[in-house]
Amino acid sequence: SACRLCIMRKLPSVLARTLTSGTSASPGLPDLSEVRSKLRDIVGASTNWRDHVQAMQERKALHTLLAKRQEDLPPRRMKDSYLEVILPLGSQPEIREKYLNVHNSVRFGRILEDLDSLGVLICYTHTKQEMQQRSPLSIVTALVDKINLCQKIIYPDCDIKFTGNVSWVGKTSMEVKMHMLQLHDGDYSPVLDATFVMVARDPENKRPAFVNPLIPESPEEKEIFKQGELNKLKRIEFSTASLLKMAPTAEERTIVHDIFLNTLDTRQEGEGTVSFRSRKLPPNSVWMEDAKLKGLEICHPEERNIFNRIFGGFLMRKAFELGWATACSYGGSRPFIVSVDDIMFQKPVEVGSLLLLSGQVCYTEKNYIQIRVHSEVYNATTREHHTTNIFHFTFISENEVPQVVPKTYGGKYPINSMLYLDGKRHFTAVMKEI
C-alpha cells in the first residue's frame, strides 16, 4: 500500500509547519498496510473474516485492563501522540493509480480514508500503555468536525505529508488535529487542515471507556487545548439549535416566505384567486427535488475495520463521491471540494448491510454548492431502515450555478425548506471558517 509512517516524538503538529523538506520517506519505514496490521495487533483483530467472531470473543478478557477512573491513567503531552505519515506519490509512481482520478489529480475520497486511519492510530498512540501489547480500548470515529482545504487541486505526482496529534481530551473522547501538506519545489506547502473527534469504548465496543488526560505545555498548546473546549461547546450549541429541535429563526422564516412569494404563479385562476399549489420556477433555478442523486453499496468484508464493522473512511469516500457527482451533474462543470463539516457517525454499519446513499443539493450561492448526503442501512430480512450518517460537503464549481429552490408551504415537499435552511447554516459556518 501507499503511506509510510514515522512516529515523531519531537514537537506537536501545530509546530510542524516548519517540517524539513525531503523528496521521499526514509527507507525502511513501514507502509500503511503494515500500520493497519499493527492496529489489528493492538486490538487482537483477525485478518480472516471467518475467524472474526472468535477474535472478538477473545477481546472480552481485556476488560480487566480498563481504568476505573481517568485519574488512574498517566497524563500525556501533545507531542507524545504526534505522528507523521508520508504518501510517496512522487517517489513511488507505482502507487499513484489507486489515488488517481480522471482529471489527473488525487481522489479526495482516498484522502478521507487515510485521514480516518491516521486519526485512529494517533489516538492509540496517545492511550498506549507501555506494558500492554494489546489495547483494551475500542477507538472509533465519532465525528468529523471539519476539514478545510486551501488548495483546489492535489497533484498525483508529488509526495504528500500528513501530520497530526491529539489536541484535546475529555473523559472518554479525544479531538485530533491533522494537517496535509504536498511537496512542491523542495518545500511542503499546506493543502488541508482536519479536526476529528474519536471516542474510546470498552473491548466489545459497548460502553464508553476512560482515556489518558492531556497536559498542554507551551502557551501555544494551551491555546489549542482551549480551542478544543470551544469546539465542543460550539457543537453542543449547533446541535441544540438544530432545525430538528427548534423552529427556524425569524430571519430564516422570512427567507423561506420570500422564496415562496417568488415562486407563486400569479396568473389569475378562477375568480381572481391565487392557488398555494400553483407554483412557477424562477429563471436560472432548479427545484430541490430535481437536484438529487442516489446510490447503493453492498458492504463486503473487504471494507471492514479492525472491529469488523464497515470502515468509516470507506463510508466517507462513498458519500463524498456521490456528493461530488451530485454537484457535478447539478452545476454542469467540475466541482472542487472546499470543506467537509459536521459528519456524525450515528450508528455503525455491519458487514453485509445494504447501504443506501442519497445526495441532495441543499443550498447554492454564486459558484458554491452545498451538498447533503444521507446514509442509511437497509436490513433486507427485517425491512427496516436506519440512518447511519449525515454528510455535509461544500463545493465550488468552475462556473456560476443555478439557484436551488425548495417547494415550501405544504404539499409533497415541505421538508425541502428545512433542508435548504440547514444547508444555508452549514454554508455560512464554512464561509466564516475559511
UniProtKB/TrEMBL annotation:
UniProt source species: Phainopepla nitens (Phainopepla)
Localization per Swiss-Prot or TrEMBL: Mitochondrion
Keywords: Hydrolase, Mitochondrion, Repeat, Serine esterase, Transit peptide
Domain annotation HotDog ACOT-type: ranges: 81-204, 289-401
GO MF: carboxylic ester hydrolase activity; fatty acyl-CoA hydrolase activity
Gene3D superfamilies referenced in this protein's UniProt entry, alphabetically: Hotdog Thioesterase (3.10.129.10)
Entry similarity comment: Belongs to the acyl coenzyme A hydrolase family.
One Pfam family cited in the UniProt record for this chain: 4HBT
Keyword Transcription attached: no
Signal peptide coordinates: none
Source taxon at top rank: Eukaryota
Protein name in the entry: ACOT9 thioesterase
Main location as per UniProt: mitochondrion
A cellular component annotation (GO) from this entry: mitochondrion
Transmembrane residue ranges: none
GO biological process: acyl-CoA metabolic process
